[in-house]
Amino acid sequence: MTRLIAISILLLLPGLCFGQQRVVIVGDQSGGAGTGPFTNVKVDSSGQLAVTGGGGSSTNNATYTQSNKTVTNSSGSLLAANASRKYLQVQNNDTTGNIFVRCDGSAATTTTSIKIAPAQTWAPTVPPVGACAAIGDIASNANVNTVEGQ
Questions:
Q1: Nearest CA to 149 among 55, 59, 56?
Q2: What would the mean pLDDT of 62-86 be, rounded to a whole number?
Q3: Predicted confidence (pLDDT) per residue in 3-60, tens digit
Q4: Could you give the C-alpha distances from 112 to 58, 119, 129, 145, in angstroms and in order?
Q5: What predicted TM-score, i.e. pTM, was given to this entire model?
Q6: Long-range contact list for 21-25, CB < 8 A, 24+ apart?
């Protein structure tokens, strides 16, 4: 398997994009510049990087499902397990109630779950695929929004 090697350079010299990070593509592990998954890498006159080629599919192709949920002060199902889940977002739109989310198939508690405060969102970098349960610290919170991508 070929891997693209990139070197990140922080330019600190005056007049050279002070404090901006640049990525320089130097080739792949086999030593051939311009080979591997990206065969056409260009930088335009404004410094924008454009990468084409590779023949692979985009990882951003997903179908998103948005749902409004009610979370109570008793642990309940928020989302079913989904082995195809590629994106997850849980948003607490309430003004006073916290919610607590757990996505390993276990019941949610206020001590062993991820706390989402009022007006906050949780969107994990690597979405869990297990069943998600939620519990709140108010009797009923009908202001919970979920977005799931697969």
A1: 59
A2: 96
A3: 444 444 333 444 444 444 444 444 444 444 444 444 555 666 666 655 555 554 445 5
A4: 35, 21, 18, 21
A5: 0.61
A6: 23/49
The one-letter code for the residue type at 52 is T
94/144 Cα distance (integer angstroms): 7
Q: How far apart are the first and last CA of the chain?
A: 26
58 domain residue, yes or no: no
**76 and 47 together in one domain:** no
Residue 109 tokens read as 């508690």
The greatest distance separating any two alpha carbons of the chain, rounded to the nearest whole angstrom, comes to 62
* Secondary structure in 3-state letters for the chain: CCCEEEEEEECCCCCCCCCCEEEEEEEECCCCCCCCCCCEEEECCCCCEEEECCCCCCCCCCCEEEEEEEEECCCEEEECCCCCCCEEEEEECCCCCCEEEECCCCCCCCCCCEEECCCEEECCCCCCCCCEEEEECCCEEEEEEEEEEC
Same domain, 73 and 144: yes
CATH code for the domain of 103: 2.60.120.770
